[in-house]
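Listing S7. Sequence submitted for prediction.
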Amino acid sequence: HVKHLETRMKRLFFECGWEHLRDVNADAFQLWRANQTEFSPKTLHEYQHAASSLFAWMERNDRLESNPLRRVGRVERKGHETVKRRSFTNDEMHRLLAVAGHYGLGYLAAVNTGLRRKELASVQWGDMHLDADRPFILVRSSTTKNRKASKIYLKSQLARMLTEIKPVGVAADQLVFVGRIASMRKMHEHLKAARIAVFNDQGFKVDFHALRMTYNMNLELAGGSVQVRQELMRHSDPRLTTGPYTDTTRLETASLIEKLPEFMGEKNTDTQLDTQTTGASSLGVSQAVTVNAGDKTENLVANTD
């Protein structure tokens, strides 16, 4: 991370002609940014973030009167992404796990926790609380992207599988998923064996990080609210949850459209609904079932099923 920051700042200083702090100005940066044809919007955003962070730190420590890039707007990234991901469907996950062998546990853990590759690789047995009433992983702040500790509950199936592979007397600092997280090369082999295209017809990609997107989508389809999903995804901004991590192709849009009301006066032919109404325009109204009990009386038959 430090190496990337140093490289970006040196390039900006040189190509913008900034020899002294007084030379730094927003116009020079925006002109430089406008002339960059080799960089994606994401990369340009990272250059801006690196420079703004440095100057903001200098401002806080009275080494600069004000951050000269404070008012520079962000480059438009939406619609210009070089890599567009999609989530895995349930059928694709079944096929992937069927061919993954011992790597399957790594895939399953990622799609059921939303942990990133590096976060998952850093999980130790001491972080696992499999004997709790509701098993969970206590992810340490030193291993997370946002540097915040987090309690992640485990799906019962995953908890059972982890309990089964836990070595007797294992040290607390031993890594849980060592040798079980597939490299990209290995994952591509699994995708090919499972007949899952890395890029679909629309150019959307699946990779290991797509498992995190799949986690969010499965929470959405299970009825999870935006607030709950944001908490489970550990996002600081709900726009991340509802934007880049939402695969709109999997949303139940078609079935929802059919639930819209009719406005053209078509008669509803649903017998169950119509028999709950009375009047001459309705279908035959359901009558209670009776039996002859003798003495010219009738009793209602109870519906026991």
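Caption to Listing S7: primary sequence and predicted structure tokens for the chain studied. The chain has a mean pLDDT of 87. Residues 140 and 151 are 9 Å apart (CA to CA).
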